[in-house]
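REQUEST ID: PR-0412
SUBMITTED BY: lab tech R.K.
PRIORITY: routine
TASK: structure prediction, single protein chain
INPUT:
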Amino acid sequence: MSKKICVFLAEGFEEVEAITPIDYLRRAEIEVITVSITNSNTVTGSHKIPIITDTLISQIDPGAVDCIILPGGMPGSVNLAASIELDTIIKKFDNEKKLICAICAAPVIVLGPKGILDGRTYTCYPGMEGKISCGEGCAQWSCEKTIADGHIITSRGAGTAGLFSKKIIEKLISKEVAEKIAGAVLL
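STATUS: complete
OUTPUT:
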């Protein structure tokens, strides 16, 4: 059975952090659905590149999804964090220990305030680690490029998007498939 992933896009998302996982995961034959958190299928990234998404957040069934990806970027991360619908999905995924993946500013801005990083090791865009609030069981920042801690995968930024994607494939399918895709794209 094929895995299903939703990549959530908000106005101002970092294009590389969204498109790289979409591309790599589709190469791994994972079903990837791009989801707008707005009322429009067209979402514009932080570098003014418009993307037409597959669907809107109001039209997805989170129960049928195995993993969610939260690209960073500004103000994309802030816009993701402001979405009530996405907040509900993230909390559901965390409660069910389903895979949650966030890159760049998204770990701190989107996951941090929800307590999802509490007691975990994470990484994020340099300088953002000082902006995380400490809830129960403080989160531990690491300078690693990509980290998997339980059902949470975090990564540093656009330059680590390939490694981030590889780690997601490894977690969802296998290390062998992840290595095959990495080799095919010369990662």
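NOTES: The mean pLDDT is 95.
REVIEWED BY: pending
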